[in-house]
Design brief:
With 277 residues, this protein is an all-alpha fold. Helices cover 68% and strands 1% of the residues. The protein has helices spanning 4-19, 25-33, 38-47, 55-62, 67-73, 83-100, 109-123, 131-137, 145-170, 175-184, 190-197, 201-213, 224-245, 250-269, and strands spanning 217-218, 221-222. The longest helix is centred in the middle third of the chain and has 26 residues, at 145-170.
């Protein structure tokens, strides 16, 4: 039985290697060169694996963004560029940002990449019900070891993310509900979630009131029931991510968790995850 704790540690510790692409200036610069504003660049770049993705598909799979925000970006992005060009720009930005941080010089890059890729390739055996992951899994693997590590973590991230959406849906928690409950944990500033996801204040307030009516919020804080729900969703998400990490032995998974800490910390220390409101 795959160790749930180690699998979660491996994902969380390595996640900054993927997540930095949403914050680094290299991405905005390359999307701008294609004629895309940063917000359009985000939706187009993450959704480009689908092809000329519609706003409806992004709303469904990205899950927690205000539909109006998505429709401002898509399908207009495809009037100025193509999915192929956006995917190329995204990879170019990844390489430039990670090299700026010296990630390519970490001695255990090859070992970490090999373990993460094995897990990602095992995940490809479980495509059903995971549309955003499946779209990215169809993309070719980069030849550059640094980009290979980023792509492996991207697949593991989207594999987990699709499972998370399934868990939220099963619990009757919509995208806006999920944002509010996440903000109530204190793990992420609510103001950042509001600004980045684009929900109007009146819709946010109405959703908060509905969650209070369900007994999940008390004021701006989680109730005991709300906390239990969050824990249940996270535990189910962990379980749904396990098929990928089953590719590794217990010792290999522990090693990946150990190595992932090195890379995640290097990305954070280099300031690649800095965001501004």
């Amino acid at each position: 039985m795959t160790d749930v704790r180690l699998a979660r540690q491996s994902w969380r510790r390595l996640e900054p290697v993927h997540g930095m692409i949403y914050f680094v200036p290299e991405a905005a610069e390359r999307y701008a060169a294609l004629g895309l504003e940063p917000q359009a660049g985000y939706f187009a770049s993450r959704g480009a694996a689908f092809g000329t993705v519609s706003p409806e598909l992004v709303i469904a799979t990205f899950y927690n963004f205000c539909p109006t925000l998505v429709r401002r970006a898509l399908p207009a992005a495809w009037d100025v560029t193509t999915p192929e060009k956006v995917i190329e720009a995204r990879l170019d930005a990844v390489g430039a940002a990670l090299r700026r941080a010296g990630i390519h010089e970490i001695p255990v890059l090859a070992e970490t990449t090999a373990l993460a890729r094995r897990a990602a390739e095992r995940a490809v055996e479980h495509l059903q019900g995971r549309p955003l992951f499946a779209a990215h899994a169809a993309l070719p693997w980069p030849d550059d070891p640094l980009l290979e590590l980023w792509h492996a973590q991207t697949l593991l991230r989207e594999f987990r993310g699709d499972g998370h959406v399934a868990a939220l849906t099963a619990e009757g928690i919509g995208g806006l509900d999920a944002l509010i409950l996440h903000g109530a944990t204190g793990q992420m500033p609510t103001v950042f979630l509001k600004v980045s996801r684009g929900w109007p204040e009146e819709e946010w307030a109405a959703a908060e009131e509905a969650l209070r009516g369900r007994g999940l919020l008390d004021g701006d804080e989680l109730t005991e029931e709300g906390g239990a729900l969050r824990q249940r969703i996270e535990a189910r998400t962990d379980e749904l991510a396990l098929p990928a990490y089953a590719a590794l032995s217990d010792d290999e998974l522990a090693r990946l968790a150990e190595l992932a800490r090195i890379f995640g910390r290097a990305v954070v220390d280099a300031g690649l995850l800095t965001f501004s409101l």
